[in-house]
Every structure is written in structure tokens, then in C-alpha cells.
Amino acid sequence: MSPRHERLLDAPPAAVVARSGQAALAVRNASIAYGPKSPVIVDNVSFDVNQGEAFILIGRSGCGKSTLLRSLAGFQELRSGDILLDGKKTKSPGPDRMMVFQNFDQLLPWRTALQNVEFAVKKSGSKDTTSPRQRALDALEMVHLSAASDKFPSQLSGGMQQRVAIARALAVRPRIVLMDEPFGALDAMTRASLQAELLRLQKEMNMTLVFVTHSIEEAVYLGGRIGLMTPQGTFEGIYTNAFQGQLDSPECAEFAGELRTKLEMSAA
Ligand SMILES: Nc1ncnc2c1ncn2[C@@H]1O[C@H](COP(=O)(O)OP(=O)(O)OP(=O)(O)O)[C@@H](O)[C@H]1O
């Protein structure tokens, strides 16, 4: 393991030490609505995400994937139910969950790539012995952006900006990384290379990840398990994916085809 990995991994926050058998994230009977009299968007869902697991939320547009993710981040209150991090109920945002969004304007435009990442580490209140600057440098190196660390967001391509956002999430060393279609606005080639990079990082860092996407191919490439949501805001099913990291085997294509059929039927 390289020194930068060790620095980013060797002193996990106390909360990382989950009791054996306990999910990193547990969602229990969660329902979400945008207001007391508004219709329910996410309806009584329960699932666990284990340490080091990549859990994908997929479903038709408007089925509530982003709403659910925002609740996991603490940005959106539950109408009922609970969200537990390492067994503890959580309601508000915190540095234990870092979010990466789709839009390229999530970085502070007046700060360089390095300053953006360093600022997030400082803001997280980390008391780690490795300095925020070193952690930011390590994280940028992990996403192959060391050479661009002094550039401002406006000087970076969309793919590079998303890499900075990922570096920022990693540098804070959250308990869980939450991603809302982070590659949705990228061209196909950049998207494919960032998917491969994310999968590498997810494995290397034993990252616990919840990732929202529209794309079945992306879900099958990245996901350890895939939660398929219905337009009613429930789960049609949660599927274990034996093809993580694969792209084009016939079995993988068959599995993706089955998911596509389920997705289409769930919307019928
Ligand atoms: N702030 C809000 N206030 C009221 N309703 C909202 C709000 N945000 C989202 N909604 C509604 O909640 C429902 C679910 O939206 P959400 O963005 O969670 O779906 P999604 O599955 O992520 O969709 P997409 O894949 O298109 O991003 C939609 O009907 C949407 O109009």
C-alpha cells in the first residue's frame, strides 16, 4: 500500500469501527414527502449497505432516487422511519457522509482544486495528524489530478471537475460516499474512464458507496448490489450483482437485460 493510501486510510474516524455484523448504513421503514400534506415520494423502504459495498439506486426518472439519497445525506427529513449509521440514528448532515453531485458547479469557483479539497477537510473538523493540505494532495493524487491542483474550476474540464469533487469526498474520509449521477453530464469516453477510476478507488479504499444512476450499464459495472426502485417509491427488488467491473460478457449482458425488463415492467 502506498504512503498516500496509508495516510487516507490508517486512522479512520472512531465511527468506522462498526460492530461485526452491523451494517454501515441501515434504512428502516423510511418514507419521505416534501411537506406534511404532500404525497409520499419514497414509501416505507428498508435496506442495509455494508462496509465496503457499492450500493446502486436505479429507477425511472422521478421515482425518488435523489430524494432518498438526499435523506441519507441528512438534507431531507424523513416523514417516518429511521436512518442509522453504524447503528446510530442520524437526522442531519455531517462529515461522515460526503455527497458528489452531477452538476459541475459544486466546487467553489474562487478556490483552486487543491484549495477546494483542503477547505472541505478543514471544515470537517478533522483532528487527524496528517495536515488538511497533505490529505488534499493525497486525494488529488489518487484521482490523478496532482498536475492540475493549482487550477481553478473554470480551467478544468467537466471530467476533471468531477474528479476534484470525488477527491474532496475522499479527503474528508467520510463513513459513506453518496453520489447522485456524478457522471451523468459527461461524454461517453470520459464517463467510462471515471467509472473505472471510481471502481478502482472503491475497491482500494474499501469505500462504502451509495450511487444513483439512470443507466443500467453503469449500475452493473459499479454495483455490488442494485436496488431497483418503482415509480411508487418502493423497491421492486434488491439484486446482488455478480458482474461488478465487467462490461461485455454474455452473462453480464443477460443480467443487464433482466434488470431492464424489470425496470420497464415496474413502470407499466
Ligand atoms: N424540492 C422538492 N419539492 C417538491 N417535490 C420535489 C422536490 N424535489 C423532488 N420532488 C419530486 O419528488 C419526486 C421524485 O424526485 P427525485 O428527484 O427524487 O426523483 P429521481 O428518481 O431522482 O429522478 P431523476 O432520475 O429524474 O433525477 C418527483 O415527483 C419530483 O417532482
From TrEMBL:
GO MF annotations in UniProt: ATP binding; ATP hydrolysis activity
Record's keyword terms, sorted: ATP-binding, Nucleotide-binding, Transport
Source taxon at top rank: Bacteria
Span of domain ABC transporter: 27-256
CDD domains reported for this sequence: ABC_NrtD_SsuB_transporters
Taxonomic source organism: Micromonospora peucetia
Membrane spanning stretches: none
A Pfam family this chain is assigned to: ABC_tran
Protein name (Swiss-Prot/TrEMBL): ABC transporter ATP-binding protein
